[in-house]
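Issue 218. Parser rejects a valid record. Input:
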Amino acid sequence: MRFLDEFRDPVFAKTLSDKIRGVTTRPWTIMEICGGQTHAIVKSGLEHLLPSSLSIVHGPGCPVCVTPLEMIEKAILIAQQPNVIFTSYGDMLRVPGSSSDLLTVKANGGDVRIVYSPLDAVAIAEKNPEKEVVFFAVGFETTAPANAMAVWQAHRKGIANFSILCSHVLVPPAMEALLSSASNRVQGFLAAGHVCTVMGYEEYLPLAEKYRVPIVVTGFEPIDILHGVLMLITQLEEGHHDVENQYARVVKREGNVSAQQMIFSVFAIAHRTWRGIGEIPSSGYRLKEEYRMFDAENKFDCGTINAQESPFCIAGEILRGLKKPFECSAFGTECSPEHPLGAPIVSSEGACAAYYNYKRQGISIT
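Output the parser choked on:
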């Protein structure tokens, strides 16, 4: 486990924990905005290494979780068509719509397939010209380059039976929506390292300055997160509001320029609705006009779909950092991975899934 154990070293973790306790003199609330970080925090019990005056809340860092209910309904509608091969990453299959999910469509005979890359879906379309092949393009900026490449390849090869159901969302606009909310209590952010690997972190500089909040780009291992927390608390205690890069071994200020060029050759910025949050201006991608023939919403004329969330699901409050999963009355009872009411309990990056998997055995939750 070379190059990995050093980022899970319990001795170094204790050293960082002691430093955090040493610099913390008052209560602070910080937010991690990446589902991978959420799971690392909960699985590793990192909150127990932090002072009780420091609260870490979980933000809308799970792309599956924030995919709007209406988009899930469109996916189900398309997947039920007799001439369609619907492809997706596996965790989208269990995300509940208003009355069904993609796994149920598959069980009822729909041709729903799990793929590991959007390019796999392009290959399926190339081998099955008599079928319409749709890929569920969900994700943050991290997955956008591969999805853009899939569309670009299909266009270059003239594969007209391929399309994507696009539900891409962007992190910085979501952070601004949280910061500008009257209910906001977040005083600093651990920014998502993988998003910044693609996009860099220059977009965060205006946010830090405008709202006077420190932002630290952070990795995903326990040592990364503790180090990021230390950097963030140090800034808060000293009254600074800078953007710092803890994940320097991976992230550059300018990001991956080639990946960005691929994204912006295929996608344009658009308004997007976030599940549990609502519409956030300029917070996602849509296909550019020259690639609209690969837009599944247009190809299948999905129109407008109105769907209702379960009245027992508080996913929106959890995604905004206002509540934690154990504060939901349905958590672990009416809502479980086998019978989900919302997306965060079934997604591999969902906060509810993290608490369900690691926090149900009588462990004290702070």
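Fixed in the parser; the record now loads. DSSP finds 15 helices and eleven strands in the chain.
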